[in-house]
User: Fold this.
Amino acid sequence: HAVSLISMTPEPLEGLMPVQVGGKVRRGLEGLGVTVIGGETAEEMSRLASGAISVTLSGGRRAVFDHIVSAVGLATQSRMIRSAGIAFNGGIVVDASTLQTNSDCVFALGDCISIGGTACRFIEPISHQAATIAAQVTGGVATHYHHRPPVIRLKTRSAPVIVEGAIRRDAAWQIETNSDGSLVMVQRDGDQVTARLVA
Assistant:
């Protein structure tokens, strides 16, 4: 397949990683033959008589594809949650230890929850969350959930990236090491490293 990646940011994954790493990811993908179209969005799509899909990009350019995979992120819908009187802050607000909402009989888990004002958007913690809730609702031995930001692994051989810690979108990334093709960056809160990235 001839693959194109359309990214709304100039470099891929800029919402998650610093621009230097996005550039490394882009170059790795391009080395595999992927066409990266940065800084644009799909404005309109239409099916052609041939069965292919015509896409008009925000810059006015048109491109034709056989298949489209859309990965545009997650946004938890709040209307039903709020109408039930359940607290919402970027996700269903849950107690960090029990995963109970502000309603006595409602618990929540997965990518729809928010702990301490931060949405939990990753799959890895769900089994631990489920075990905590199961113990709470069945009267079993109480287990307490301890939320830790999961390790993020970008699984591409062309530009592997590992991110650990709590990424803050309002904090700057600082280069710790940049040599021999390895880039290590960190985010700090004062003197404490709160997130670390290896690319």
Q: What stands out?
A: The longest strand covers residues 182-189. Residues 19-31 form the longest helix (13 residues). The mean pLDDT is 91. The CA atoms of residues 90 and 101 lie 14 Å apart.
